[in-house]
Fold:
Amino acid sequence: KPVFKIEDLHVSVEGKEILKGLNLQINGGEIHAVMGPNGTGKSTLASALMGHPHYEVTAGRVELDGEDILEMATDERARAGLFLAMQYPSEVPGVSNANFMRQALNARLGEGNELPVLKFHRTLQEKMKKLNIDPVFAERYLNEGFSGGEKKRNEILQMSMLEPRIAILDEIDSGLDIDALKIVANGVNEVKSDKIGFLVITHYQRLLNYIVPDYVHVMMQGRIVKSGDAKLAEELEAKGYDWLKAELGIEE
Ligand code: ADP
Ligand code: MG
Ligand code: MG
Structure:
């Protein structure tokens, strides 16, 4: 059962402090939702956790199973079991989806533990079927010409192939219609187990009707300012963020 701890995390982008002392612990089997207004640093959190070079960690600690994540390069973090589904997945012309996933999976499994090619393709086909992804997608170039919904489903496919220990989903719901949203949520619910913890970042409560969080955290101005259960998300949906800003004395 993984244990992921973020302690007093401070992150700057181009010299400007965006995350200002963020604390969060995610254990295996738990789904944590992070909600918050636009521009509050949610994507910054996701990128910093994966080690994106634009995001400078100026203070704090991040541990996965007692190991210091911040000391690791991005590929080492992936190997340790961190996974990020991005808000804007990039297109990689010239690399097929299947090849990209095989390389990512082999990197995750480590030298000597690679999946045999046939077994890989069989697993990939099974998972694609479950996620309602047309088998031809395996041979298309990564994300090139994919619709928004297809890109998001593809991120979930990568997640289910890689079997991460901590999965971070950054606005996986943005731009999805309700059918695509349900497919993505089903994918998450299928992968869910004690062996994986989820950090689900979203601006809207709607996603949380389908991926039911154990904890909901509100992020404002680079910190978690309030935590609760799924009811907190419903309250935010009904009342917006302004009442909370007023309650907490936050001006933006
Ligand atoms: P959210 O995901 O909550 O909408 P972001 O993390 O994307 O918020 O952005 C938080 C702040 O950091 C914003 O003011 C944004 O302009 C700034 N920021 C984030 N990433 C970058 C970047 N790569 N370059 C410059 N500014 C950035
Ligand atoms: Mg945003
Ligand atoms: Mg964002």
About this structure: The mean pLDDT is 92.
